[in-house]
Amino acid sequence: MTLSSRFFSIFLVATLCFTSISQAEEQRYQKLAKQQNTASEKVVVTEFFSYGCPHCNNFQPFFNEWKKTKPDSVELRQIPAVFSSKWENYARAFYAAEVMNVLNTFHQPMFQALHTQKRKLNNLKAIAKFAGSLGIDENQFLNTMQSFGVSTKINAAKEAYQAYGITGVPSVTINGKYMTNGSLARSYPAMIETINQLIAKEPR
Predict the structure, then answer these.
(1) Is 48 helix (H, G, I), strand (E, B) or coil?
(2) How far, in Å, are 77, 167, 180, 190 from residue 110 at the CA level?
(3) d(CA 1, CA 13)
(4) CB atoms near residue 144 (< 10 Å)
(5) Residue 11 placed within a domain
(6) Is residue 24 scored above 80 in pLDDT?
(7) How would you classify the pairing of strands 74-80 and 171-174?
(8) Which of 35, 57, 80, 132 has the smallest number of Cβ neighbours within 10 A?
(9) Residue 74: pLDDT above 60?
(10) Strands (E), the chain
């Protein structure tokens, strides 16, 4: 083999390796079929999740750490899944906590109650009682879960899942353009890395 042939072979192998790496990175996310208008000047990161999802529970430690360090140029939004009547109750709980401004008190304990403590929070009254155990007004929480305002948010969540084409959780979208999840990224650390890479692609 001549020197030039040997150089070409090395160059070809290096190119193929680079291409394989690029393709592997590309497979960590996908473009949404239709770009969504986020109506924000910031880069919007949206988490689609459910309290009832064990994979979402496993993802939370990684996502919670990411939230502590997210840039000021990033706006975080969270949309609970409504794939079943039970999960709709969990979605109502999320929005009630958000409306009552007690999400920091309620959010992580709700995951722990369902997945670590194995509590059967199967209806709104049970969820409200659990909220009461956290020092949240139980009656107000129950009424808020059943309110027109929360019902409106539930309908908006259903529309968002359809518009974004989200069929499983946890999924995270970036600026209404890209989506990643555990299956695409193949690990939760890689999912966080992909979120950061996609944020970096967006103009600020």
Answers:
(1) strand
(2) 18, 23, 24, 25
(3) 16
(4) 23
(5) no
(6) no
(7) unpaired
(8) 35
(9) yes
(10) 30-31, 43-49, 74-80, 171-174, 178-181
